[in-house]
Amino acid sequence: MKILAIETSCDETAAAVVEDGRRALADVVATQIEIHRRWGGVVPELASRNHVVQVMPVVDEALSRAGVGPDGIDAIAVTSGPGLVGALLVGVQAAKALALAWQKPLVRVNHLEGHLVAAFLSETPPAFPYLGLVVSGGHTSLYAAERFGAYRLLGQTRDDAAGEAFDKGAKLLGLPYPGGIAIDRLAREGDAHAIRFPKAIVKGSELDFSFSGLKTSLLHHVKKHGVPEGRGLADLCASYQEAIVRALVEKAFRAARRLQFDRLVLAGGVAANSRLRAAVSEKAAEYEGMEVFLPAPRLCTDNAAMIAVAGTHAFLRGERAGSDLNADPAWRL
Ligand code: KG4
Ligand code: ZN
Fold it and tell me: Terminus of the chain with fewer CB atoms < 10 Å: N or C?
């Protein structure tokens, strides 16, 4: 079975062809990072306009790289939420038009489900049930993944997402968008213990996250000491990154222990962070029988292959979207 998927929820225009929900025959991502960089973050209107320009060339490229024509496709999957409404609409309209023109079934996919199942494209995919930590620019959520299509939200951020903490922190330090990549790189040369950032206390659910206090601490630090250069900047990046990573690792393993999960799957753009990947592996070594799944960075950041995986299983369950499918910018998984 071959599924063509389209993803346009934020600032990547992506299309992929995936076979049997496991093998990406083509995985094309046209990123708009350069377009948004000069504004220091994603400008929704610019994102939509560029998706309009890119979506069909990206779909054509995916089909051509996969070596299949419309006849070889069993269904079309599309991200219909959550995300930027104008950006989502471009993918949804393109997918609806193609489904109509080619007479193919259409399925809608939740972007977060895509992230949660991206690991199935790895050589060693996880087995259900597993604990999934989605850490991206818009989300920081812990899910119990029971089977395809069945996810239970265990905890989430009360304010900023982990990726936002990276991006806003980087902006304060004068680093380019997307901040996570810039901080990750600089932090490699720095001392993560140089500056102590306070640990966030989240009242209520023990599995919820909070990152806005950390961002404020960084702001105070910068107001007091200015933005350092060289080694000082590397130390500050490493310490700030460590505080984000510590919070993520602590909550994920607390949930794993409490709910007796022995598989942890990371997903979302922040899961590409080298320190987070190392810290999760280190921590797993302390937990006997704990397996961690860290999809390749390319599978962590936004792509359409992960949407095709989720779409394949939705299709197999018999889910279908009609020509009235609309973008659902706040769709909760
Ligand atoms: O999943 P994603 O590509 O898009 C969303 O759905 O949001 O995640 C983008 C986020 C951005 O906040 C970016 O700064 C962050 O992922 N990111 C990273 C790294 N690479 C991307 N954060 C930390 N370290 C990285 N290496
Ligand atoms: Zn994403």
Answer: N
